[in-house]
Design goal:
Blueprint (H helix, E strand, L loop, with lengths): L5 H17 L2 H9 L1 H7 L4 H26 L4 H19 L5 H31 L4 H30 L9 H29 L2 H7 L7 H9 L2 H19 L3 H7 L5 H26 L4 H21 L7 H21 L14 H12 L2 H15 L3 H31 L3
Length: about 425
């Protein structure tokens, strides 16, 4: 990778970080930070919200492979900026508080804009930024930086919501909450479009030329070549299990509301505060990984996530145990974000050719991000059917199972890459 100055390299990383988080702010982060409020203003139950994520996931599933193929042929700048502009347009629809059927169409639309046009391009550009020796740092900084953006925007969103809502949150009507939350949605949509403009203007020069690789092999041959690699299949399982843990972060604020009895603004603050753990963990892990082994920290992450999931699944955290609640949340988040920081950093150890990065990422993501389809509805069903702490216990019990599976796959992956030629 030929980047002339540190300033240029920093600018490229900043654009990857900003775009990498803002593209998902409307479909995911808003409902994660404002889960109780989001359910109220759109008049949804947990299963319905989970079903929206499922629609997103189905479209995304169809988009990963083909999106990965076009990533290996076209400029990340054009793909990523187009994705951001189109995603921002969806925010205007969201702000109108459409019907549930329209919301399903909207989430399917976002599944296309944020995956087909964006996902593979971002991963490939990040891999290029990291070069041969800094893959852990590149992906750790990417996800850590995305965490800073998510946490900052989450806090800004909470601030906007609390300022616009002139009455007490408990006595405010649904209409008053909708009006206040509309400003949060519109501000978020503006920021997504603005980042798209920055990407279109500045993600250029050597970065664009270097990433515009056209493989001499046809797409079907590329796919067959990638699928012959056993480590790719293991990485699919690792990411799927880790992503279940990440999906569970969607209900942190709901746990605070339903089990700890926080009000909606306090619960939203919990959702925002836990986001600050993401940059701290990801950046630290990214810096450590290149000096040790990426897989060591992924294994560490699964062990830590397992411990956190077990604590929550036991259900002994009571409303007056605030310190234990936050400590357990920290343990679980540290494990989740440790894995998330590095699971694409090991593409180099898996001997995936750079020219096939988009295709590999697309194929891995089909299985790896399949929880987008099933995790939301399952969690929603359990939370609606078993109100209070019991429903949350069942959700975390599922996470225990996936943590164990992910740990086993990680240990197998670590043994496998030891046998691969250097």
């Amino acid at each position: 990778m030929k980047v002339k100055t540190n300033k240029q390299k920093f600018l490229i990383l900043a654009l990857l970080i900003l775009s990498g988080e803002f593209i998902y702010f409307l479909p995911y982060v808003l409902s994660r930070v404002f889960r109780p409020t989001f359910l109220d203003v759109f008049q949804l139950n947990n299963f319905q919200l989970g079903s929206l994520f499922s629609v997103y996931g189905i479209v995304a599933l169809l988009s990963y492979v083909y999106g990965g193929v076009i990533t290996d042929k076209y400029s990340p700048r054009k793909l990523m900026s187009s994705a951001l502009f189109l995603t921002a347009l969806g925010g205007l629809v969201l702000a109108s508080y459409p019907s549930y059927k329209t919301l399903q169409i909207l989430y399917g639309y976002w599944g296309f804009t944020s995956v087909f046009l964006f996902w593979g391009a971002m991963i490939k550009a990040t891999r290029l930024w990291g070069g041969d020796n800094n893959q852990g740092k590149a992906f750790g900084f990417l996800d850590g930086g995305r965490g800073i953006v998510a946490a900052s925007m989450g806090s800004i969103g909470v601030f906007i919501f609390s300022i616009i809502l002139t009455t007490d949150i408990e006595s405010a009507s649904v209409i008053e909450r909708q009006e206040a939350f509309r400003y949060v949605i519109l501000f978020s949509s503006f920021m997504v479009a603005f980042i798209g403009l920055l990407v279109f203007i500045f993600l250029r020069s050597s970065e664009e030329k270097s990433t515009n690789v056209k493989s001499s092999l046809n797409s079907l041959t590329n796919i067959k070549h990638v699928l012959k690699n056993e480590s790719i299949w293991l990485l699919m399982i690792i990411i799927m299990c880790a992503y279940v843990g990440y999906k569970v972060t969607d209900i942190y604020s709901l746990y605070a509301s339903e089990v700890m009895f926080y009000d909606q603004i306090e619960a939203a603050k919990v959702g925002a505060v836990q986001l600050y753990l993401r940059p701290i963990v990801c950046i630290m892990i990214g810096l450590l990984a290149d000096k040790t082994k990426n897989m060591f920290w992924i294994i560490f992450g699964f062990i830590t996530m397992l411990i956190g999931a077990v604590i929550f699944s036991l259900g002994f955290i009571q409303p007056d145990m605030n310190f234990i609640f936050f400590l357990s949340l920290v343990v679980l988040a540290v494990g989740t974000y440790s894995i998330r920081a590095l699971y694409f950093a090991v593409l180099k150890e898996a001997k995936v050719p750079f020219a096939l990065t988009g295709t590999a990422v697309g194929l891995i993501s089909v299985v790896g991000y399949s929880p987008d389809i099933f995790a939301g509805p399952i969690m929603g069903y359990l939370l609606d059917t078993y109100p209070g702490v019991v429903g949350h216990q069942y959700v975390y019990l599922i996470l225990v199972v996936f943590s164990v599976i992910g740990l086993i796959a990680s240990l197998r992956f670590a043994r496998l890459i030891k046998k691969l030629p250097k």
